[in-house]
Amino acid sequence: MAPSSEQSPGPGVGVGPTSEFSLFFRVKEGMGDSLRAALNELMKTPGYRPGDYGMAVATIHEARFVLFDDDTRLAFITSFDGPWDSYMEDFFNSGPTLELFDVIFKHTESYGGLPDLAAEKAFILGAQRSAAAYARNYPGTVKEIRKAERVAAAFQRVLDHPDAAAALQHPALQPLLDEAGD
């Protein structure tokens, strides 16, 4: 049975161990082009470049910024594993991520910097709106998914080994072979 959406322990809606997180901001007058340029620079940063999968906050499934209403509004939408307070602490202590987000959020109204965790939480909560609905297509955490990818790659190396045929004759390995055939 699929997990149902439920209220998470913090802001947002949770499914299993993962919560959604949606923030909406007003862009300061005349800052749309500058913000778009800052977002383009973010996409050149390790962990955020297309194809990079090493974000500093390792519990994030995905993160996206969307400029809309003629670049007068900004949405930041993500999902993450674990409790909201832990996510906020990881974000605040992530070093480069906090600096990168400062470069982005300075273009928004009501942003006064993030001098401490309390200021970060207040800024975030002021812009946060819970999703009316949230669903996921997979049950795992980021950590579990990364482990599954490593196990799959290791199993593929076993299958590719010249001596694998003899070793893989054992009946206990049949479920793995059946999955590998997909």
Unreliable segments (pLDDT under 50, ≥5 consecutive)?
Answer: none
Distance between the termini: 23 Å
Q: If strands are numbered along the chain, what order do they take across the biggest sheet?
A: 1-2-3-5-4
Give the tally of β-strands.
Answer: 5
Strand content: 15-25%
Q: What would you say this structure looks like, in words?
A:
The chain is built from 7 helices and 5 strands, in the order βββαββαααααα. With 182 residues, the chain is α+β, with helices and mostly antiparallel strands. It has a 5-stranded antiparallel β-sheet with strand order 1-2-3-5-4, with helices on one face. It is elongated, with a radius of gyration of 21 Å. The two termini are 23 Å apart.
Summed up:
This protein has seven helices and five strands; from the N terminus they run βββαββαααααα. The chain is 39% helix and 18% strand.
Short descriptors:
alpha+beta, five-stranded antiparallel β-sheet, 7 helices, about 180 residues, elongated
Secondary structure topology:
Elements: E1 6-7, E2 13-15, E3 18-26, H1 32-42, E4 60-68, E5 73-81, H2 84-92, H3 96-105, H4 117-127, H5 142-160, H6 164-167, H7 174-180
Antiparallel strand pairs: 1-2, 2-3, 3-5, 4-5
Helix pairs in contact: 1-3
